[in-house]
């Protein structure tokens, strides 16, 4: 365990020094684990927290409660009885997340900015991994990134620890080879229909805000 802790500290130190470390550790089609603190919801009641059935309408002193929390003896409440309390903001580890893409951030080549990290072999146009208008409550991703299948615990901008799977990956899902054909980059605010800003501009024409920006410039 001490050697494992030392290796973990070395990896964390390297991750702080080298921003491209995960490209040397993870690769496409890998199965990895995510460790983080979940989104907090504060103190919640038993119905919200555990999904218990509400009591009849004429119940005394509340409906969103548990009618019986246990027998007279043993004279204590069992751990298995649903109770009100803290909901969220817990340390959680989710295992077996499939890596769909190990992406490279924006970079310059011959003085030209290259940001076509969201395109696939089946796309007709070059596009960025960022949706139109950026990710909601986050912004634009310009650094290296990982694309995983499924969700990760925590809120936006919260630190997530990624680690190699410690379980033997012998199942068919773990050994499946992924071929990405399409990445949706439409706007995540409202009902987005355009994959890039250029596509929207060519369809909608010059908008009023574009004219105002041109005049102000």
TrEMBL record:
UniProt keyword list = Ribonucleoprotein, Ribosomal protein
UniProt GO cellular component terms: cytosolic large ribosomal subunit
Protein name in UniProt: 60S ribosomal protein L3
Output one GO MF annotation: structural constituent of ribosome
Q: Which Gene3D superfamilies match?
A: Translation factors
Keyword Oxidoreductase in the entry? The reply is no
Q: Organism source for this protein?
A: Thelohanellus kitauei (Myxosporean)
Q: Which Pfam families match?
A: Ribosomal_L3 (PF00297)
**Keyword Disulfide bond, does the record have it?**
no
């Amino acid at each position: 365990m001490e050697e494992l802790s030392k290796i973990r500290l070395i990896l964390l130190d390297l991750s702080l020094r080298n921003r491209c470390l995960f490209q040397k550790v993870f690769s496409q089609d890998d199965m990895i684990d995510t460790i983080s603190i979940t989104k907090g919801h504060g103190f919640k009641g038993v119905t919200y927290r555990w999904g218990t059935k509400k009591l009849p309408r004429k119940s005394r002193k509340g409906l969103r409660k548990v009618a019986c929390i246990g027998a007279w003896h043993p004279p204590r409440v069992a751990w298995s009885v649903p109770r009100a309390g803290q909901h969220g903001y817990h340390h959680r580890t989710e295992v077996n997340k499939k890596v769909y893409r190990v992406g490279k951030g924006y970079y310059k080549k011959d003085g030209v900015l290259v940001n076509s990290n969201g395109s696939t072999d089946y796309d007709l146009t070059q596009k960025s991994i960022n949706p139109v208008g950026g990710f909601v409550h986050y912004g634009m991703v310009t650094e290296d990134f990982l694309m995983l299948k499924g969700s990760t615990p925590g809120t936006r901008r919260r630190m997530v620890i990624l680690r190699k799977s410690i379980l033997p990956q012998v199942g068919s899902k773990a050994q499946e080879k992924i071929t990405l054909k399409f990445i949706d980059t439409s706007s995540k605010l409202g009902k987005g229909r355009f994959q890039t800003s250029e596509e929207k501009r060519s369809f909608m024409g010059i908008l009023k805000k574009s004219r105002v920006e041109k005049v102000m410039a």
